[in-house]
Amino acid sequence: MSIEQQVQVLNSLTQIMHDSANGQYEEVRCEFEYEVYDGGWSVGSKYSFVRDGLFFSELLDDPGDKASSYVHKLHELMKSQTGGDWKKFILVIDPSGKANTKFIY
Hints:
This protein is an alpha+beta fold and 105 residues long. It has helices at 3-21, 66-82, and strands at 27-37, 40-51, 54-58, 88-93, 99-104. A five-stranded antiparallel sheet has the order 3-2-1-4-5. The longest helix has 19 residues, at 3-21. The model has no long low-confidence stretch (mean pLDDT 94).
């Protein structure tokens, strides 16, 4: 389990978000919520982007729901490495493709 694996997962999420915007944008943002319960886990997401100064809130274009699996994998990687047990994180991408994350515990 390594930082490189975490970066790969975040890059996969970033690609889904970028593709979901379907064009140019000033910012793409997704808030992923992670919940563990008896016998399983679930992921919720709130996706939005800004294009031409206008705010759009939509669903991720992710028919196979790969994002949920990536979020679960990221949670497991981080928990095993640092013991961090976050419940939510926000991933923001600027037009150059630079991503920033904020984890909420």
